[in-house]
Write a structure and sequence with these properties.
This protein is α+β, with helices and mostly antiparallel strands. The protein folds into 2 domains: about 10-70, 2,3-Dihydroxybiphenyl 1,2-Dioxygenase, domain 1 (Roll); about 75-163, 2,3-Dihydroxybiphenyl 1,2-Dioxygenase, domain 1. The chain contains 3 helices and 9 strands, in the order E-H-E-E-E-E-H-E-E-E-E-H. It has a 5-stranded mixed sheet with strand order 5-8-7-6-9. Strands 1-4-3-2 form a 4-stranded mixed sheet, covered by helices on one side. Strand 3 (about 45-50) and strand 4 form a beta hairpin.
């Protein structure tokens, strides 16, 4: 193995998902989550983003038009994680989901972040989260990061909207 270490400034730039129907996927990613269309290629592909970036998410039907969701217990993407800048932003999108009656599959406090979990219309997992300040991340006595999975206090998250 190599002793190469990925540079600290490296980021994951975008995710490209196979979907069965672009309009149904856009109803979720654009209509519910609020991403903006950057470019569309008919009923085959669309690129969406936040803040004018070229694309954070690509959606395509090249191999998946009208196909059923992939089996849950098959290899593949577990979830796409969408990082919100603040806890209040996470609270706002959570309230939007609740108000729309959209099913939530989980909500966790990971010590380093707080996250809401759900599936898109094609069964692709989606994590909506915000990172806590790095100084607040939990460490053990040896200074090693200690992420956890605890229940997220959803009423307290919603209260963030009015703070």
């Amino acid at each position: 193995m190599s002793d190469y270490i990925v540079p600290a400034q490296t980021r994951i730039g975008h995710v490209h998902l196979k979907v069965s129907n672009l309009d149904k996927a856009l109803g979720f990613y654009q209509g519910l989550l609020g991403f903006e269309i950057r470019q569309r290629y008919g009923d085959q592909a669309v690129f969406i983003s936040a803040g004018g970036y070229h694309h954070h998410i690509g959606l395509n039907t090249w191999y998946s038009k009208d196909a059923p969701p992939a089996p849950r217990k098959a290899p593949g993407l577990f979830h796409t994680a969408i990082l919100y800048p603040t806890r209040k932003d996470l609270a706002i999108i959570f309230k939007r989901l609740v108000d729309a009656g959209y099913p939530i599959t989980g909500a966790s406090d990971h010590g380093v972040s707080e996250a809401i979990y759900l599936d898109d219309p094609d069964g692709n997992g989606v994590e909506l989260y915000w990172d806590k300040p790095k100084a607040d991340w939990p460490h053990d006595v040896n200074g090693q990061l200690q992420m956890v999975t605890e229940p997220l206090d959803l009423p307290d998250l919603l209260a963030e909207i009015n703070r």
